[in-house]
Amino acid sequence: MNKKIKIVNKKKFAVACLIFLIMIILLSKLLSLIINSASGHALMDNVALAADKNGSITLEENEFYKKYTIDCKKSIEKLNYDEKNDLIEVSVMKDAIDNVNIKSSSKVQGKDVTYDKNENRIILKFNKQFKENNYIYIDNADKKKIIVLLSKKEKPYNHVAVLDPGHGGVDKGTNLKNIYEKDLTNKIVNYAEKELIFKGCKIIKTRYEDKWVDLKEIGNITNKANAEAFISVHINSNKESKYKGVASYYYFNDKGEQKDERMALAKTMQKEILKSDNWYDRGIIKDRLAVLRYSNVPAVLLECGFLSNEEDRDKLSKEEVLKNFGNNICNGLLNYLNSDKNKGIDYYNKSKTDMSRDKTATADDK
Ligand SMILES: [Zn+2]
Fold first, then answer.
1. What is the separation, in whole angstroms, between the first and last Cα of the chain?
2. What's the 303 CA to ligand 1 centre distance in angstroms?
3. Distance in Å, CA 181 to ligand 1 centroid
4. Would you state the CATH architecture of domain 159-361?
5. What CDD domains does the annotation carry (predicted)?
6. Distance 304 CA to ligand 1 centre (A)
7. How far is 147 from 193, CA to CA, in rounded Å?
8. Cα 92 to ligand 1 centroid, rounded to whole Å
9. DSSP-derived secondary structure letter, 171
10. Cα(239) to centroid of ligand 1, in Å?
11. Contact 49/117 with Cβ under 8 angstroms?
12. Where do the structural domains in the chain lie, given as residue ranges?
C-alpha cells in the first residue's frame, strides 16, 4: 500500500513541477513584454494604413509617382529617415501626427505603407516599387509637410531638362543686406525641380550645393545632359529702385538656329511666371547672354524680380512666392515640352517685347 501511494505522489509532484515551470515561462514572457514596452520597443508591427477622412497622410498619384504628403502638427527641423533597398522608413515623434491613416473617404488602402509604433515614435514604412528615383524631403514652404515620392516606373520621366540656379559660392550675385541672389535662385530651382520630377521630367542641375560654376562649364553640363531645354534662374537689380517685375531672356544666333523654339520657350515661361503674385510684366527680351549662347538646346534666362525694388523685395522674402515661381516654371516648361515647339506659341502679347527693352534694366552678363 505504502509503495503505491508513494508512486502516485511522485506523479503528482512531476505534474505540479511541470505546471510550475510553464507558469514561470509565461510569467517571464509577460514580464519581458512589459519591460520592452516601457523601454520603447515596438508594440505594433507593420500595420497597414487605412482610409480615413481625418487621416494625416494624403496620396496623390500620376503615371510616374505616388506622392505621399505627411501632415505634421509642428515644424520638422530635421528629417529622420532611412532609405533601404526596398523601403524608405520615416520616423516622426508620435505626437507629431494626428491620425496615421490615408486621408480619403473611399475605401482605398495605403497598401505600400505600413507603420510601427512605440512609446515615442511612429515609423512609417514606404515600400519601394523600384530601387531608384525615390525621394523624401520636407516642403520648405510649409515645414510641417514631409513628402515621399515613390517611383512607379524604372524611368519615371518623359523629358529631361537642365535647371541653373544663378550664381553660387563666392559669386553671390546681387544682394541687399542679407538677401543674396544665389540663395533665392537656389530655392526657386529646388521648388521647380521637385514639381518637375513628380510630373515626369528628369532634372539635371548645374549645381547641387552652394558653389560657383563657370559659365562655360554651365554650357558643358547642359550640352552633355541630353536635355530638351535649359532654364537659368536669376534675380535682377538696378541702381534705380523704380525698376521692377519679371522678364524672360532668350537668344538665337544670326543664322536663326532654333529661333522659333527659343522664342516659344521664352514666351511660355514668361506667360507662366506672371500667373502668381502680381508681378509686373517686363516681357521677353533678346540678349546675347553667355549661358544662352553656350547652350545647344533651347534656353531661357528668367529674371525673377528686382532686389533693388521694395515691392519686389517684399515678395521675394516670402517662401510661398519662391514656391509659386517654382511651380510656374514647372508648368511653363511642361507646356513648352508638350507643345509643338516649331510652330511657336502665340500665348503672349508680342507688343510687350519691345516695351520692356530698357537698356538700364537688362540682365548682368550671365
Ligand atoms: Zn544674376
1. 112
2. 8
3. 7
4. 3-Layer(aba) Sandwich (3.40)
5. MurNAc-LAA
6. 10
7. 14
8. 39
9. B
10. 15
11. no
12. 44-151, 159-361
Quote the ligand 1 centre to 259 CA distance (angstroms): 24
> Could you name the CATH architecture of 44-151?
Sandwich (2.60)
Per-residue pLDDT of the chain (366 residues; tens, 9 = 90+): 455 555 557 778 777 878 888 888 788 777 655 554 444 444 567 888 888 899 999 999 999 999 999 999 999 999 999 999 999 999 999 999 999 998 988 766 667 899 998 889 999 999 999 999 999 999 999 999 999 999 999 999 999 999 999 999 999 999 998 899 999 999 999 999 999 999 999 999 999 999 999 999 999 999 999 999 999 999 999 999 999 999 999 999 999 999 999 999 999 999 999 999 999 999 999 999 999 999 999 999 999 999 999 999 999 999 999 999 999 999 999 999 998 764 444 444 443 443 344 434 445 545
Distance CA 231, CA 206 (A): 10
Ligand 1 centroid – CA 301 distance (Å): 9
Residue 288 burial (10 A CB sphere; 0-12, 13-18, 19+) = exposed
State the distance from the centre of ligand 1 to the C-alpha of 236, rounded, in angstroms: 6
Cα(366) to centroid(ligand 1), Å: 7
**Cell digits of residue 113:** 505603407
Q: Is 113 helix (H, G, I), strand (E, B) or coil?
A: strand
Interval between CA 98 and ligand 1 midpoint (Å): 43
- Centre of ligand 1 from the C-alpha of residue 362, in Å: 11
